[in-house]
Amino acid sequence: MEAPRLGGSKPPPSVRKVIAYLVLVCFVPGLLGGLAFILREYYGDRDALQLRTLQTARAMVQTVDAQLDQAELLALALASSGRLTRRDFEDFHQRAQSLINASQFAGGVVLYDNQGQQLLNTRVPFGRALPQRKNIAQIRNVFASAKAVSSEVLPSSLDGTPMVSVAVPVFDAGKVVYALSVGITSERLNGLLSVQGLPAQWVVGILDPAGTIAARTVAPEKFVGQPAAAMLLAQMRAAPEGMFEGLTRDGIDTLSVFSTSGRSGWTVAIGVPKASFEAPLMRSLLWLGFGAGMVLLVSIGLARYLGGRIATAMAGLNRYVQAMANGENLAPQSLQIQEADAVALAIAHAASMLAQRSEALVATHAVLVRREAELADAQRIAGIGSWTWDVASDETQYSQEVYAIFGRQEIPHFSEQSATLFPHEAWLALRQARLNMARTGKAYQLELPAFRQDGSPIWVYLRSEVVRDADGTVLGMKGTVQDITERKHSESIAHSERFIRVITNAIPSMVAYWDSKLRCKFANQSYLDWWDKSEAAILEVSLQELMGESLFLVNEPLIRAALRGEAQSFERFLTRPDGSQGHVLAQYLPARDAHGRVQGFIMLVSDIRAVKLAEGELKLAANIYQNVTEAIMVTDLSGTILSVNPAFTQITGFPAQEAVGQPSRLLRSDRHDPAFYASLWEQLQASGQWKGEIWNRRKNGEVYLEWQTITRIGASGDASSRYVCVFHDVTDTWHANEANRHLALHDALTDLPNRTLLIERLERQIAIAEREPRQIAVLFLDLDGFKAVNDALGHAAGDALLIAVARKLQSLVRQTDTVARLGGDEFVIKLDRPENRDEVVHVAERILQTINEPLDIQGHAIQLGISIGIAVYPENGHSAEALIRHADEAMYEAKKLGRNQHRFFSSELAGL
After folding, report:
1. What CATH number is given to the structural domain containing 142?
2. CA 161 to CA 417: how far, in whole Å?
3. Is residue 336 situated within a structural domain?
């Protein structure tokens, strides 16, 4: 007959299944938790890497902008040289070559005309053939905008190597006459990348505004001059900064960041190969999977073994129960489980046990007392107390450990525990939890701050549940109290340590803490990267072991001084474990405890290679500033002098200490009218530069002429805009030019204007007359009888006669008119704006009358006549040549009519 089943027809699970399910229930949450922890650490590290990499890209963009600014500054200094406007190209070639060699700009200096043709190139010896036109668009842009223009990455016209250039305009009399460029080679840009000390497998690139690769750490010979990857270009068009995942040009799967300069448009992109930071994740997952599998297999095997033994014991017990039910006696046999054997013996000896019930009850009471004592000890050791609350009596019973936790002899009633046992806000939270439990029957767990009897703060962990009878009626509550103050303190310390690590890992400098025994207790990520070690590999390592014997001996005196409480700061070249060398600023800062005792020291090490490189470049610029022969004056936007170089003092006589702080009008000579300065400032504001000649005054009052170039330099960072004025003294050259011009435009004998100057003045007056209608009269004069005097008295007397006639003619006209000698005994007078024809006739008659008067020449009384021909603008011609020719024809007609008279040109004469 089959035994009936409890709880329905479906059989319950076996012991083996129950134990297997229990193993899975315990194992799976642990596995999932471990996986979640690994993934959280991975994504946290990845986000931190992205942020650090983006900060690095921003810093590198500033370095690229500084490189372009340096090239532009050098180009502007060269473009202001007077040698260019004098076309002294050979001397300029030598000077530019020396400056380029000193500045290490291997790209050289190139001078272009407005067609883009090279006029000189410092990379080609002067006089040799120059390459064909390159960078046409850039050069045209310079001439069109009169501003500095940076090129894209283009192949060099000499050897085809990729290069970037910064071109600036060269002005002459306010007009752009040349474009001068300074080249930056891709090798120099690659040098900016190499000094960053980034991991060798990272792909770092510098891109021009068009997205062309200008420099690259990986395979630059293959990709420099090529466009960047399509995904990077799309990201750059969408935003000035960004992070994304994608493939590089050479197929490397990377986590990439980029930053674009808002000033120059150049971009620095950094790609971190995903394999470099995903490998630890994969290794962790593989080990987790392997370990979990092994644990699962062992657990299931053990569960099956234990389940089998329990099942066998249960079957044996079932036989004993069946035999006892049937009144049979079975000899006790071992069931392989101690508890099953005990049950079997209990069943077998049930009768004797009943007889010995009193003795068993006493023994059981002793066991209960002992267990209660053990429970009390366990609560004390674990710091856990228990309590019960009876709903009928409203009384609460506390274990001894609860009193110990709160340091009290009595525990106040719950309604009195606010501000005595718990802070008010914590008590309100506990009250709300108790009410919710009373309504829903769900247990609560809380971590709350509390107070001891002496007022000292603690943290407690509270758990509680409802107590019900068999019918489900609520009888009260029970719960536990655990002191978790130490754990909370540890969590706070751990949180502080995590916070400190986040801060120090964001610092590019290396930070480490070494105790008095020279054992490493802390190192930030930069420090770990420098030594190429993990945190686990460096903690507790001795400083001597990490540095090596030789480096430790060099640093030991400084270390000992820091441990004595003396802060140390020094610069040094250090060699990385990978062999690369860095220039660092190191500081050893003593770390003291609350009593002021030195417990160790903090090591702060900063890589200052870029700073030292910038210092060298600044020294070069300062050397150029101090030694150029041109004077340099720097002012703010209001014209206040901020700085001058030695050449300024040499030319003006003003020492730097007297000039700095004074307005730039300190040098003004008052030779120019306000309109001149208004035009100067208008051009300077429009194009950013003015060039030209200007009269200024030295400290001793002497007025001199200088060739001056004023350039507005734009703001950089927090710095304000400046005006840079470069000039040199051209007074001697001006005097020489003026003398040559006078000789070229005046008659050597009479010092009257010659034919060239006469035509120049006539053409200028005609151009004015076309805008403002007016008359101009030209009188052509020829002396009557001059040849006879010259032949009779000699050439000396003839020359004296011509000089005397010239002086008389000058006395008969206004200053705005012109008396010119064309040669021999021919003179021409230009009358500017005569009122009418009668005024011209009046002047001609005065000339006839004055010349007819006798002249005393070398003791001889000489009387001459003069014939005059007259042409009037615009009736007799619209050009200077036409007016002079027609006046000449009218003069010959006057001679035909008897000489010593005047005659106007007419259309009848033109037809003869």
Report:
1. 3.30.450.20
2. 83
3. no
Q: Between residues 344 and 874, which one has the greater pLDDT?
A: 874
Interhelix angle 795-811/786-793, nearest 10 degrees: 140
3-class secondary structure, 453: coil
Query: Is the preceding omega at residue 874 within 30 degrees of 0, hence cis?
Result: yes
User: What digits encode the pLDDT tens for the residues 595-621?
Assistant: 678 889 998 888 877 677 767 666 766
Long-range contacts of 129-138 (CB under 8 A, 24+ apart): 131/157, 131/158, 132/157, 135/165, 135/167, 135/181, 138/165, 138/167, 138/179, 138/181
Pairing of strands 395-398, 384-390: antiparallel
Q: Are strands 865-873 and 902-904 parallel, antiparallel or unpaired?
A: parallel
Mean pLDDT of 411-433: 89
Mean pLDDT of 857-880: 90
Q: Which residue has the tokens 């003026």?
A: 738
Query: Mean pLDDT over all residues of the chain?
Result: 82
| Cα distance between residue 854 and residue 849, in whole Å | 11
Residue listed under structure tokens 């085809």: 160
DSSP for 851-878, written as a single string = HHS-EEETTEEE--EEEEEEEEETTT-S
Residue 701 sits in the same domain as residue 761:
no
Q: What string of DSSP letters covers 685-746?
A: HHHSEEEEEEEEE-TTS-EEEEEEEEEEEPP-TTPPPEEEEEEEE-HHHHHHHHHHHHHHHB
Co-location of 557 and 408 in the same domain = no
Give residues with Cβ within 8 angstroms of 702, minimum separation 6: none
Q: How many domains does the chain have?
A: 5
Distance of CA 413 to the CA centre of its chain: 66
Helical pair 755-771 and 731-745, crossing angle rounded to 10 deg:
90
0.85 surpassed by pTM:
no
* β strands within 526-621, DSSP E: 568-575, 581-592, 598-607
- Owning domain of residue 166: 80-187
| Section 705-729 average pLDDT | 79
Q: Is 30 exposed, middle or buried (0-12, 13-18, 19+ CB in 10 A)?
A: exposed
Distances (CA, A) of 69 to 179, 187, 212, 605: 17, 18, 20, 29
pLDDT at 362: 56
Residues 128, 131: Cα–Cα separation, whole Å: 10
How large is the greatest C-alpha to C-alpha distance in the chain, in angstroms? 187
Give the Cα separation of 596 and 487 in Å (integer): 28
- Answer whether residue 352 shows pLDDT above 60: no
> Is residue 413 very low, low, confident or very high in pLDDT (cuts 50, 70, 90)?
confident
Whether 461 is in a domain gets the answer yes
Task: Supply the DSSP string of 1-29, one letter for each residue.
Answer: -PPP-TTSSSPPPPHHHHHHHHHHHHHHH
Same domain? 703 vs 555: no
- Does residue 6 belong to any structural domain of this protein? no
Q: Does residue 217 belong to any structural domain of this protein?
A: no
Domain final residue pick, 143, 165, 187: 187
Q: Is 268 helix (H, G, I), strand (E, B) or coil?
A: strand
**Cα torsion angle, 318, 319, 322, 328, sign:** negative
Q: Give the range among 328-332, 706-710, 809-813 with minimum mean pLDDT.
A: 328-332
**DSSP code per residue over 325-379:** HHT--------SSHHHHHHHHHHHTHHHHHHTHHHHHHHHHHHHHHHHHHHHHHH
Could you tell me if 123 and 99 lie in one domain?
A: yes
Backbone angles phi, psi at 452, to 5 degrees: -85, 175
**Whether residues 756 and 901 fall in one domain:** yes
Read off the amino acid at residue 382.
A
Nearest to 104 by CA among 132, 147, 67: 67
